[in-house]
């Protein structure tokens, strides 16, 4: 597990494993969001297996698989709702953490502005400069 801090409450990570569940709980997370489609991972890392491990450790587990096709307004809003509704720190993961960062950025652009979102992502190690036009458009709404 290699969490990167986006905000105090929202962290992202590359792919985690079921064996990480205890460490995730011990690190103070209350919600784990799986942003990785099952088709990208072997059965041991698919949502059902991850759910069993995370819930057995006392964590809430939600699945919101994201691809270029599913990075839409409904899923951006759903990710935001999951984060806002969490009772503590949230860990979202995908292959590298990028999709989990992008969905956060798209959801926060109107509140924080493009520059702040891009700077926040960059501090966590994610260069989202290619999204600047989209983030600006969202911020100007």
From TrEMBL:
Known InterPro entries for this protein? BLH_phosphatase-like, Prot-tyrosine_phosphatase-like, Rhodanese-like_dom_sf
Q: For this UniProt record, give its keywords in alphabetical order, as a comma-separated list.
A: Transferase
Q: Which domain of life is it from?
A: Bacteria
Q: Which GO terms describe its molecular function?
A: hydrolase activity; transferase activity
* Residue ranges constituting the Beta-lactamase hydrolase-like protein phosphatase-like domain according to the UniProt record: 4-110
Q: Which Pfam families match?
A: BLH_phosphatase
Does the keyword Transferase feature in the UniProt annotation? yes
Q: Specify the species.
A: Ponticoccus litoralis
Tell me the protein's name.
TIGR01244 family sulfur transferase
The cross-references to SUPFAM superfamilies, in alphabetical order and at most eight, read: Rhodanese/Cell cycle control phosphatase
């Amino acid at each position: 597990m290699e969490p990167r801090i986006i905000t105090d409450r929202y962290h992202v990570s590359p792919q985690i494993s079921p064996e990480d569940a205890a460490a995730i709980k011990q690190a103070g997370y209350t919600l784990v969001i799986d942003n990785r489609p099952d088709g990208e991972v072997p059965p041991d890392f698919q949502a059902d297996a991850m759910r069993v491990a995370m819930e057995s450790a006392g964590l809430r587990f939600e699945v919101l698989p994201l691809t270029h096709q599913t990075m839409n307004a409904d899923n951006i809003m759903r990710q935001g709702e999951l984060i806002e509704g969490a009772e503590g720190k949230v860990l979202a993961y995908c292959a590298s953490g990028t999709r989990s960062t992008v969905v956060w950025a798209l959801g926060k652009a109107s509140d924080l502005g493009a520059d702040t979102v891009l700077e926040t992502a960059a501090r966590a190690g994610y260069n989202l400069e290619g999204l600047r036009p989209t983030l600006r458009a969202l911020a100007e709404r």
